[in-house]
Each structure stands twice: as structure tokens, then as C-alpha cells.
Amino acid sequence: MEIKKWEEGQLFEANGAHMRWVFWPGNGCNGLTLHYSILYPGESFRLHKHDYSADVISVIKGKGKLLTADGEVDIEAGESVFANAGELHGFKNTGDEPMITIGSQSPADLELYRRGGFGFGKLEKDK
């Protein structure tokens, strides 16, 4: 068992925002990950997808818009989103305070970590 502080996760900046990788392949978590992010007012995490990973994101604080292939949907603290593998999703903070989210992927999207500059050899789907 392991305990980690969200703010001490590995910093990753992409898609117009930044996040902290708390549990991820870099510290041995391949089957399930945990990411922590703060979007400040006006910031967005652009529309993106994970080809073979499902993603669950929960809004812990604040409000904004969930970005989808079909447009934008209001979202606020206390709500969670499930995005299937290959489904476009993103977030935009439309409020006046930070929007804090916690997200988890299963399995880990190793391509995401490669783009972040962290090598992980062959992906499971490449084998």
C-alpha cells in the first residue's frame, strides 16, 4: 500500500493545461492511474482521446464545461465523467475559481506518458 500527496505527482503540461501524475507507470502503476489537475479560470484541457484506455474524471471543486465531440456540457463539483476508449473529451473552466479534477485511466495510456517525455518501451497493444 502506498500514500501520495496529489500536489507531489509528476508534473505534465499538454493540451493547454497541466496536471500531476500521482499514480502512473513511472511509479509502477500500469493497470490503473490517478491524475490531479487544476484548471484556473479561463484555462482549458483541449479535446483529446485515449485509444485504448477508459477515463473517469471527477470534478472536486469549481465548475466549467465538459468538452465532447458533440459540443459542451455544463459540469460542476460533485459530478464525474466516464469516457470510453477512443471517446473525445476535455474540460474548460468557465467559473471564477480554480476547477480541480481527479482522473483515472484503465489501463494506463502509455502513449500519453511517452508524449510527456517518459519512455516505456513497447505498448501492450504493440506486442
Descriptive notes:
The protein is mainly β and 127 residues long. It has one domain (10-116): Jelly Rolls. It is built from 1 helix and 10 strands; from the N terminus they run E-E-E-E-E-E-E-E-E-E-H. The strands form 2 sheets. It has a 6-stranded antiparallel beta sheet, with no helix packed on it. A 4-stranded antiparallel beta sheet has the order 4-9-6-7, with no helix packed on it. Strand 1 and strand 2 form a beta hairpin. The radius of gyration is 14 Å and the shape is globular. Mean pLDDT is 87; it is low at 121-127.
What is the architecture at the second tier of CATH? Answer: Sandwich
| CATH first level | Mainly Beta
Order of strands across the biggest sheet?
Answer: 1-2-3-10-5-8
Question: What's the pLDDT, averaged over the residues?
Answer: 87
Counting helices, strands and paired strands, the structural category is mainly beta
- DSSP strand tally: 10
Low-confidence region ranges:
121-127
End-to-end Cα distance, whole Å, is 30 Å
Radius of gyration: 14 Å
* CATH superfamily grouping: Jelly Rolls
- Topology pattern, helix = H, strand = E: EEEEEEEEEEH
How many structural units, i.e. domains? 1
Helix content, binned percent: under 10%
Strand percent estimate = over 45%
CATH topology: Jelly Rolls
Please give the count of helices. 1
Largest sheet: 6 strands, antiparallel
- Please tell me what the overall shape is: globular
